[in-house]
């Protein structure tokens, strides 16, 4: 009787999960091929998800450690099941190359659809023909010189950033929010042409909501119970999320409408001769906001909104994480900081001189420092692909179609097979001067913080310009020393940091699921990194 009731309940659960589209019934071929691949034993139906979720909910840092151990055990690649769908995780550069370098595998994996209510089908989230068309249109608009043309904007905001950091000198405070706000202001001005007053109420709300909406997406990504829209929309957090998205959309739409009106007026007033003289090359060399370039392409307002929102998110969250980790490492290594400082003073001559485009290629040592920080702390540590076709693995085995693949560049870039003493911060790995650190036989896919192949980061050049200009301005004006907040140290030392909590003194979030992509990438480093103490101005 009891057995029948249990059987009935399980059948009901399975049927409901199938009706809701959560549980899939795999083909016999998928089962056969997946079970031949290396990987841990899985629970039926939910696969390995339950283990990951229970580890993550206690300690996100523990999840990355667990995945790292599994990758080591299975030689850089292993497969498992999630609700009846095959999935795999890899940090093997050969496997990663086989996927990223092939135009057949450009479809994004599961978590990306959580961004769609906000970003729609912008470049990051779109698929198939739509993605191909957009990428083709956007590549020239977001061309290589775009970053250099915007160095002036970066300098102006970086000066304000320096003042803001100095105001906090010596106080235990989490500086990541300041860096994020800075990154957001830079991308808003360059992508939308918005140079708004910090005190403007709507603008402040837009900035705050950009942060909280990103956090909400991240929290949802690791909570399977919030996966389905119809469930999420009914929760408190879901309602808040959709309200926030509505405000963000209204804000962007208002900016687009205004710029479209200005754009059309300007087009009417320019003469035929001016337009003829204004060829493609000339347009590229002028500093035109990304939004105006999209308007010139004749895109619809909703399509422009998707791209502006996509670039706003993609263009500030990643770069601010990079600033944070670079400053953290410079604070930890006064000798490296000194070399960066000397190089900057040699190139620019003075702490106050704004960076110019011509200075950037001369920043050889700083570039190596940035690359090394992006190796140890890639701002996008894991990303996914949904493989619609079979993949022939370098081992000769076949990964069946419809597998969700997680690519861990975090583990790949910290693998001793790819980098000697991988946890040491050694910028020399990226200098051209031969040394024991810069192996010439490094696998070309062993270092890809901006991904690689047809779906790599379109903002890579822009990001490198922004990071160089920003760090140059900071380091010429401030000497960075890391200090650990005493209260935070107590928590860490007592190893009490297994729950989601905040240090009451420096407000650093421990196991903060909101910023948990960073949490996912070695939380213990993150916690220390976001507390910088600035001792003195240079
Ligand atoms: C340090 C800074 C950055 C890092 C490490 C980074 C990293 C990445 C990575 C790894 C991807 C591939 C993600 C995937 O395949 O799912 C990506 C894609 C993308 N990034 Fe970045 N990014 C950075 C800065 C930027 C900036 C500044 C922008 C825009 C201004 C930007 C815009 C984008 C867009 C639109 C895509 C999607 C491209 C496509 O799917 O065709 N990123 N980025």
UniProtKB/TrEMBL annotation:
PROSITE patterns linked to this entry: CYTOCHROME_P450
Keywords: Heme, Iron, Metal-binding, Monooxygenase, Oxidoreductase
Pfam families: p450 (PF00067)
The UniProt record lists the keyword Heme: yes
Listed cofactors: heme
InterPro entries: Cyt_P450, Cyt_P450_CS, Cyt_P450_E_grp-I, Cyt_P450_sf, Cytochrome_P450_Monoox
Family according to the record: Belongs to the cytochrome P450 family.
PANTHER family: CYTOCHROME P450 315A1, MITOCHONDRIAL, CYTOCHROME P450 FAMILY 4
Entry protein name: Cytochrome P450-like protein
Organism: Nesidiocoris tenuis
